[in-house]
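Q: Hi! New to this. If I give you a protein sequence and the SMILES for copper (II) ion, can you show me the bound structure?
A: Yes, paste them in.
Q: Okay, here:
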Amino acid sequence: MTDGLDFEPQTLTVGVGDTVDWVTTGAVAHSVTAYEEDLPEGAAYFASGGFDGESAARQAYPEGSVGRDEVYSHTFETAGEFPYFCIPHESGMVGTIVVESV
Ligand SMILES: [Cu+2]
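A: Thanks. Here is the predicted structure of the protein with copper (II) ion bound:
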């Protein structure tokens, strides 16, 4: 997550059981917040700060923000596409994790 206000890469493909680490590389803090309505059926919700839903994550921000050199990790146990965003930069800072069956 960069000071250019983006997720690099914007789309990342992994396998079921893989863990993704998001790192803030610049000075600007970000969040990793899943779009709850768009998750695959039966998938666990994920958000930096460990919130169990999107509205809780939105309301609590800046709790859950990921600052310089901090890491948020999530392990994907369900196949499908997982769209997510950064709460303070939602207008342009969005990404997708594609989880493939292995
Ligand atoms: Cu951001």
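A: The helical segments are 54-60. Let me know if you'd like me to explain how to read the tokens.
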